[in-house]
Structures are given as structure tokens and as C-alpha cells.
């Protein structure tokens, strides 16, 4: 099992433990990932042995839109030639681009929420591409069951993801020539931001992995990106790696900042999900824009 497969499997198990999935559904999703029943049961038991802190009661929902939605730009579907065929994505054009950003989706594939993130970034001056890492399988829209999309992503070799992401960097720089580039990713996509940095992609001026799994023993010395890494205080599974991430960034000589959002859980930025934390999302958005402004323009 690759580190990304392990991460996805643990996420499914954690969702069951926290009451977001029934046991039957968790076993079904783990089976789609290639995890047998015995191993699935052991994984769920192992993930349930922690002492996760309890969140404070969330404030009443103010009804305010997610951060950045007041300036969101509508995305358009695009295709381009990748290393293994045609790649797909959603492109959002800034009126006067200050730079460009590659947006990497969660383990459910490219969906409307990820498109909205690209559109929000374009609304504040960063033309953005939300890449579809299931392009070779016909795109995320070809999967009627999101769990099947997740299972398929878990079976793809990490090397293919890196090649496709580098092609995505090619595309954003082609569309916005002469401007700095960055990468932002969430959950699974946050892990791929880390992997892209470890692969030595030199063209990123800034990177922001949101609660993404850290690769084993990463070497970031070939990257040039300024890294702002986000974690949720209550997301003990992923946040446990923040000190390792900071150490690896220091060893690699990269300018970096680690941001832990108080009272926030995994996926706190996703306003379409059950763990959305509006206060943490607003703070993270403001921090992200400050970071992009400082290191991209």
C-alpha cells in the first residue's frame, strides 16, 4: 500500500469512527480501494484507539458565504495534452492576473467545490486551474459514485500524479506567461502538493498544502517554493506530522510557515462537507491571500 493509499484508507476508517459513514459503507469503500474485510476491520480498530480532543461547540451559522465567494469567477472546462494523453481541468481567468495557481482536488476528484476554489482565487487576481487527476479514466464526471472515484485515485501510481501535475504547471504558465505560479491542494491534494515539492518541481514560487499527508522522509531541497502549510487542531491523524513537515522544510532550506487552526478538524475549509469550520476557513483564506501576495504578487 502506497502512503497515499494508506492515507485514503485511514480517512475512510476515521469517517466511520466519527459517525460520518456506516460500518457497511466504510467496508464497501475500503473494498473499492483494494482493502479486504479482515484488513478493513483491523484498520478501523487501529484508527479508533486515539484520544482525539473534543471540539468546542461551533457558533451558530451566520449564513455568510464561504470566504472569497463574493468575487468568484465562473470556471470553464479546458483540455490540454498531458504525458499520457488528454488532461482535463477547470480554468478560471483573473481580470488582471497577478500570477497563476494550480488547484489540486481532494480524494473525490474534481467537483463543483474545487471549481469554486479556483474561481475564488481568480476573483482576487490569480488565474487558476483545478486539474482533474482522473482525466485518463474519462474524468471525475465519469464516476457516478464518488466512492468509486476515490478507489480509483487510490490505485493510481503516484508517479502518474506527479507527471500530470507537472503538466498542469506547464499549462498554467502557458496561459499566464511571465507571471509566478503556485499550488494549493486539499486533503489528498494537499499530500500531492507535498509530493510535487519533493519531486523537485522548481517553477513554483508558493505552495499551500491544506491538511495533506506528508510523504515518507521528504527531501524538499530541489524546490524553490515558499510553503504555507495548514492543519486543523482536532485533526490529530494529519496534524501529527506538522513537526516533521517543518523539519523537512528547514532541511530543504525553504521559507515556510505552519498554521494550525484552533478548534478546526480535517477538511475544515470545505464548505460542502460536514467538518466545515467557517471561522477557520476565513482565517485560512486571509492567510493564504497574504502568502500569495507576498510570494507571487
Automatic annotation (TrEMBL):
Keywords: Hydrolase. Residues 95-295 form the Dienelactone hydrolase domain. GO terms for molecular function: hydrolase activity. InterPro entries: AB_hydrolase_fold, Dienelactn_hydro, Dienelactone_hydrolase-like. PANTHER family: ALPHA_BETA-HYDROLASES SUPERFAMILY PROTEIN, CARBOXYMETHYLENEBUTENOLIDASE-RELATED. This is Dienelactone hydrolase. It comes from Mycobacteroides abscessus.
Amino acid at each position: 500500500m502506497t502512503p497515499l493509499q494508506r492515507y485514503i484508507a485511514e480517512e475512510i476508517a476515521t469517517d466511520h469512527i466519527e459517525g460520518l459513514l456506516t460500518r457497511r459503507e466504510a467496508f464497501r469503500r475500503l473494498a473499492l480501494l483494494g482493502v479486504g474485510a479482515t484488513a478493513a476491520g483491523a484498520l478501523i480498530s487501529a484508527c479508533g484507539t486515539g484520544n482525539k480532543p473534543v471540539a468546542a461547540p461551533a457558533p451558530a451559522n451566520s449564513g455568510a458565504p464561504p470566504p472569497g465567494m463574493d468575487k468568484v469567477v465562473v470556471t470553464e472546462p479546458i483540455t490540454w495534452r498531458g504525458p499520457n494523453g488528454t488532461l482535463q481541468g477547470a480554468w478560471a481567468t483573473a481580470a488582471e492576473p497577478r500570477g497563476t495557481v494550480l488547484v489540486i482536488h481532494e480524494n473525490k476528484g474534481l467537483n463543483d467545490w474545487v471549481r469554486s476554489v479556483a474561481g475564488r482565487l481568480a476573483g482576487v487576481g490569480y488565474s487558476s486551474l483545478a486539474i482533474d487527476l482522473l482525466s485518463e479514466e474519462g474524468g471525475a464526471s465519469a464516476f457516478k459514485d464518488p466512492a468509486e472515484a476515490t478507489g480509483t485515485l487510490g490505485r493510481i501510481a503516484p508517479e502518474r500524479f506527479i507527471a500530470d501535475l507537472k503538466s498542469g504547471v506547464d499549462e498554467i504558465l502557458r496561459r499566464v506567461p511571465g507571471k509566478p505560479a503556485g499550488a494549493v491542494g486539499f486533503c489528498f491534494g494537499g499530500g500531492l502538493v507535498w509530493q510535487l515539492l519533493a519531486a523537485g518541481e522548481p517553477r513554483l514560487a508558493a505552495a499551500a498544502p491544506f491538511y495533506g499527508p506528508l510523504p515518507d522522509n521528504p527531501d524538499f531541497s530541489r524546490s524553490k517554493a515558499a510553503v504555507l502549510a495548514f492543519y486543523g487542531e482536532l485533526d490529530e491523524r494529519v496534524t501529527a506530522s506538522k513537526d516533521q513537515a517543518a523539519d523537512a522544510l528547514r532541511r530543504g532550506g525553504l521559507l515556510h510557515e505552519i498554521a494550525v487552526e484552533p478548534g478546526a478538524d480535517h477538511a475544515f475549509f470545505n464548505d460542502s462537507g460536514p467538518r466545515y469550520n467557517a471561522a477557520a476557513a476565513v482565517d485560512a483564506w486571509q492567510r493564504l491571500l497574504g502568502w500569495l501576495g507576498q510570494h507571487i504578487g
